[in-house]
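User: tokens in, sequence out, please.
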């Protein structure tokens, strides 16, 4: 409470300011849905320097009673012979007794679906008195690039294993996992983990041809769709092309996984 008895807003998360301006979005050399490369204007906004952590999400769960991360009804991505592996890897991140597992408090929260991320944003908006939301695809890509226009990764053109967490050796998958946020150096905008560690939910529906027909100013994505978008690659990505700033990964709306989290955006 403030001195006058009014509720004092909670502090905002650690945010980076992303200046208004245009940038080249997409890639001419990779997936068809990353073309055409097009110049997009994005208004000023703020974005979390890190993905939302297990501890930050725990405050939300404790305050609201929202269901804690758990292995629940399996998503479509876990079918087709992948059920046992999904359950095994996801079990590490399920919360016993409604609290994060030991040893991962500063890691990105995972096992959260798109609707869980939206619920966190609504709660955070009420706590801070600001509009907290998921970034759009365009906002996410501009922030992830850190001002390095047209380059493949947030740090430059060539892959650098010392700059991000990914699956260098797929045979060792069961020995790897998420890393604490901020383990690797930030990009030029001060953002960490925009390549690897966890995929991140953005607000857009997926549209394979949206780059050719969407707005060139603050695009919001298609009005509807059948798939959602996650960005950035993760600790289980063994294809380094998935770690590129332009990579678009689409998943069914029911998806949750041990490799998907989110970061928040805040209106300027």
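Assistant: Sequence out:
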């Amino acid at each position: 409470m403030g001195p006058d008895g009014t509720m004092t807003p909670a502090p905002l998360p650690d945010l980076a300011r992303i200046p208004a301006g245009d940038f080249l979005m997409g890639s001419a050399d990779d997936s068809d849905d990353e073309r055409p490369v097009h110049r997009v204007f994005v208004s000023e906004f703020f974005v979390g320097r890190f993905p939302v952590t297990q501890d930050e999400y725990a405050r939300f769960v404790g305050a609201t009673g929202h269901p804690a991360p758990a292995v629940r009804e399996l998503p479509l991505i876990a079918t087709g012979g992948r059920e046992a592996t999904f359950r095994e890897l996801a079990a590490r991140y399920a919360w016993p007794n409604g609290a994060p597992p030991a040893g991962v408090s500063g890691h990105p929260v995972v096992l959260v679906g798109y609707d869980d991320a939206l619920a966190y944003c609504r709660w955070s908006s009420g706590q801070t008195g600001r509009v907290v939301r998921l970034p759009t695809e365009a906002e996410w890509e501009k922030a992830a690039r850190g001002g390095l226009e047209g380059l493949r990764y947030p740090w430059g053109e060539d892959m650098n294993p010392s700059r991000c967490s990914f699956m260098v050796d797929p045979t060792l998958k069961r020995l790897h996992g998420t890393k604490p946020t901020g383990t690797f150096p930030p990009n030029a905008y001060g953002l960490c983990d925009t390549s690897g560690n966890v995929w991140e939910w953005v607000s857009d529906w997926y549209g394979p041809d949206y780059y050719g027909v969407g707005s060139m100013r603050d695009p919001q994505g298609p009005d509807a769709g059948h798939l959602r978008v996650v960005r950035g690659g993760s600790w289980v990505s063994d294809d380094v092309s998935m770690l590129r700033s332009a990579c678009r990964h689409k998943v069914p709306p029911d998806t949750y996984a041990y490799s998907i989290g989110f970061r928040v955006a805040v209106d300027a």
